[in-house]
Amino acid sequence: MQNYKFTYYGVSLAIIGIVLFSAKAVMVKMAYTYNISSEHLLLFRMSFSLPFYVLISFFNKPSKPASIKKTDYLWIIFFGFIGYYLASYFDFLGLQYIKAGLERIILFVYPTLVLIISRIFLKKIITKKQLIAILITYIGVVITFWGELQVNVPNVELGILLIFLSALTYATYLVGSGWLIPKFGVVTFTSYAMIVSCLCIIIQYIVFDRASLIGYPIEVYILGAIMAIFSTIIPSYLVSAAIARLGASNFSIIASLGPISTILLAYFILNESFSTIQVLGTMIVLVGVFSVTIQKNKNKG
Q1: How does the protein associate with the membrane (predicted)?
Q2: Three-state SS at 301
Q3: Distances from the Cα of 13 to the Cα of 226, 239, 289, angstroms
């Protein structure tokens, strides 16, 4: 028997959060048409988000303050840096070179990366079924971006590598931060980690950039604000609420809708192609991810 009750409310929160997160990739591609750098676009997204995360963290204190050590706050800084700052930075850089649909498919191999990292650093056993799921997932990824590699697009390999690094850093964040969430609570931990990430972006701009942020078309600022509210703040807490109600394994199954939603959004909004081979690769990736989550549910049963 599963440990978490599958409620319609939790499923609804998960689906809305996943779709909103997926829309971020499409908005990034739209913003790039105005010749904005990855660093400035990410700065707008996180700067607009920061006040909201600070306010939410003010009204949501740690759930178990007695169990929190000073070093736990250092770990939050580390995971906020690697999980949200680096993952987002790699993602924004990669989207300069590849399509939004492909970006989302590569990112959604992170459940298999979680298994591998857990095996290497936490010595958790990977079962045969999990190994098969990993193999299926990566076959799907190869099939999906094989056609894009055949197209004469500059630096597509670099884009794929950057998106993979985004998935890897996010997977590392998930593995390493799991033991902190019960101490701080999902909402509080997410708020703290996001505040760290926002500050990292701002510090990067102050130290390495300092170029004027004035002069972009008004559409860039609007897209930055929309991205902050609808593809960062709202979905981060919707997803947290969904995980609290459904559990991480059940949520992961629903999260498989992410690649599909991005491809559909990119197709309708950006007029990107929606080829048969891409559909096939997507289905194979989803089978692999679904196999992993089913295995996790069985382990919890």
Answers
A1: Multi-pass membrane protein
A2: coil
A3: 19, 7, 20
Q: From the CB of residue 237, how many other CB atoms can be counted at a distance below 10 Å?
A: 20
Q: Is the dihedral of CA 231, 77, 248, 164 positive or negative?
A: positive
Quote the CA–CA distance of 253 and 137 in Å, as a whole number.
Answer: 14
How far, in Å, are 1, 3, 132, 134, 240 from residue 301 at the CA level? 5, 7, 21, 22, 22
Q: Give the residue carrying structure tokens 């002069």.
A: 215
* CA atoms within 13 Å, Cβ hemisphere of 191: 17
For residue 164, give the nearest of 242, 106, 112 by alpha carbon: 106
Which among 93, 32, 105, 88 is positioned nearest to 228, based on CA atoms? 88
Say how far apart CA 61 and CA 124 lie, in whole Å: 32
* Contact present, 169 and 90 (Cβ < 8 Å): yes
Q: Write the CB contacts of 57 (distance below 8 Å, at least 6 apart in sequence).
A: 188, 191, 192, 195
Angle, CA of 288, 129 and 167, to the nearest 5°: 40
For residue 135, the surrounding DSSP H or E stretch is helix 128-150
SS3 string, 60-115, reads: CCCCCHHHCCHHHHHHHHHHHHHHHHHHHHHHHHHCCCCCHHHHHHHHCCHHHHHH
Please give the Cα distance from 299 to 293 (Å, whole number): 10
